[in-house]
Design a protein that fits this description.
The protein is of the alpha/beta class. The protein has five helices and seven strands, in the order αβαβαββαβαββ. A seven-stranded mixed beta sheet has the order 3-2-1-4-5-7-6, sandwiched between helices. Helix 3 links the parallel strand 2 (47-52) and strand 3 (72-76). Helix 4 packs parallel to helix 5 (143-156). The longest helix has 16 residues, at 2-17. Pfam families: rRNA_methylase (PF06962). It comes from Bhargavaea cecembensis DSE10.
Length: 195
Amino acid sequence: MELGRTLAQARKLLERTVLPGETVVDATAGNGHDTLFLAELTGPDGRVLAFDIQQEALDSTRIRLGNLSDRAELILDSHDRVADYAEGPVGGAMFNLGFLPNAGDRSVITRPETTVRAVHDLLGLLKKGGLVTVCVYDGHEGGDRERDALLAYARRLRESDVDVARYELINQKGHPPFLVAFEKKKEFREPLLLD
């Protein structure tokens, strides 16, 4: 299943860089799968900041966390406000773009302007060697605009600051998700953009 492959790749990357006890971010809590993964990864001394703009998503996440709920702060706010909640350094962050799976209202989607701002702010908050993973779903209304904005932003980052990789299945029909991973290479508060 292509979704599993994309998410599995994101998780493998984060498993190599996130350390127990670190602060991490689930920028799109959704149904809580990534929040639970991050809570397990960072352990009892870690801190997960899980963002979503829908209370329904945070309620699902709380249930999924079960007895690990004390490891996560569930935040009913947009991920582009991450700098208001995280002081850094952040060990890693995950995004799953699009809409809340199994929800009735598919008009509530992630947006290009908030996603790019959140990734930008997280790059400033990341530790050296930290990662931001973004699973991109572009087969829904508005998904193509968000994809294009994210990739345009990624191309403008200086290679001396950030490595950006794209992982995708190229023989799948339709619009399979793909992964964009940002790795911070050195210390900075604001990533430098090319002119």
